[in-house]
Amino acid sequence: MKKIIIAIDGYSSSGKSTMARDLARRIGYVYVDSGAMYRAVTLYALRHGMAADGKVDESALIAALPEIGISFQPAGADGVQHTLLNGEDVEREIRTMEVSNLVSPVAVIPEVRHRLVALQREFGNERGIVMDGRDIGTTVFPDAEMKVFVDASPEVRAERRVKELREKGENVDYAAVLANVKERDYIDSHRKESPLTQAEDAVVLNNDNMTIPEQMEWLLDLFKKRSC
Ligand code: DC
Asked: Which helix (H) or strand (E) holds 160?
């Protein structure tokens, strides 16, 4: 079996990160959550006073890009891969609503995207990688052997996100989360620089009515076909 690149793209909270992480673990591949990288840059902007009223000070953030180091610590006993910002574990902080609300405007900045895409390609140098995001199959790895585009309705995605945030102890309200999901969909798919679109050669997975084990079976089936 040859080592391949697996690109999993789709809307926010479509379950693609869980699916990508579980798939990587099952097949012994490296997993990279590209959204976590945009979130880490956003957290840096928030911490350094580069964001106010939902707006980002683009020039300050662009000037600071060389100071922003992002890496991953492989999954430990909790099975979760941790995102490091300049060596500090920020896995929890990058998942808050404060970061979620600002990440789309950060992700539209071309200089931010160029830097993160270059880093993402380095992670894929040796293949044997599963990466999830918005532009992985279209821009980061257009030659990926396996491309999946995950789709689910905004309502189902908002419900999942509320559950996830409440489990982490965040007090959130469904309407606010649904509004955030829809707003991010809009910004992500209308931005100039590599908008969220389905790659022509991607296979669509609509998981509105699928269980996690059903999704895994679907992915493993496709993986077998693409890696032999
Ligand atoms: O997958 P996520 O919700 O953690 O992603 C956070 C944000 O990052 C999302 O609103 C869009 C952006 N993003 C992107 O523009 N390109 C990627 N490859 C991954 C994420």
From this structure: helix 154-167
Q: How far is the C-alpha of 35 from the C-alpha of 184, rounded, in Å?
A: 12
Q: Does residue 72 contact residue 84 with C-beta atoms inside 8 Å?
A: yes
- For residue 50, the 8-state DSSP code is -
Tokens coding 127: 């293949």
Mutate to test the pocket of ligand 1, among 103, 112, 121 (most ligand atoms within 8 A of CB): 103
Residue 75 has a CB neighbour count (10 Å cut-off) of: 14
Strand boundaries in the chain, DSSP class E: 5-10, 30-33, 51-52, 55-56, 70-73, 82-85, 88-89, 129-133, 146-151, 203-206
Ligand 1 binding pocket (C-beta < 6 A) is: 12, 34-35, 38-39, 103-104, 107, 133-136, 184, 188
Residues whose CB falls within 8 Å of the CB of residue 153, separated by 6 or more in sequence, listed in order: 208
pTM for this predicted structure: 0.90
- Residue 192's Cβ-count burial label (10 Å; 0-12, 13-18, 19+) is exposed
Q: What is the pLDDT along the chain (228 residues), one digit of tens a residue?
A: 889 999 999 998 898 998 999 999 999 999 999 999 999 999 999 999 999 888 999 999 999 999 999 999 877 767 778 999 999 999 999 999 899 889 989 999 999 999 999 999 999 988 999 999 999 999 999 999 999 999 999 999 999 989 988 998 988 999 999 999 999 899 888 988 888 889 999 999 999 999 999 999 999 999 999 998
Q: Which atom of ligand 1 is nearest to the CA of 13?
A: 3
